[in-house]
Design a protein that fits this description.
With 80 residues, the protein is an all-alpha fold. It is built from three helices and no strands. Helix 2 runs antiparallel to helix 3. It is globular and about 40 Å long.
Length: 80
């Protein structure tokens, strides 16, 4: 089974801002997050991660997909 790095939108580390409270219902960001979390079947990614016994946990593909789609929607083509 794949292991992913734990993430929590309600964490208050380094920046005193709750990301969960920043994503407002009815916004594109909220819809995107809901769609990826609730509607898309991303279990195909789990087959590629064989890190349950050893190795560092991977970043959750749901989180990475949210970042990529949101960046493209805002016109950000690269992170460099």
């Amino acid at each position: 089974m794949a292991r992913y790095v734990d993430y929590n939108y309600d964490q208050m580390k380094m920046i005193p801002v709750s990301y969960e409270k920043q994503i407002l219902p009815g916004s594109f960001e909220y819809s995107l997050s809901w769609l990826i979390d609730e509607e898309l079947d991303l279990s195909a990614f789990d087959e590629h991660y064989r890190n349950d016994a050893k190795g560092r946990p991977a970043y959750d593909p749901r989180l990475l997909l949210k970042i990529i789609i949101l960046a493209y929607s805002k016109g950000v083509a690269t992170s460099r």
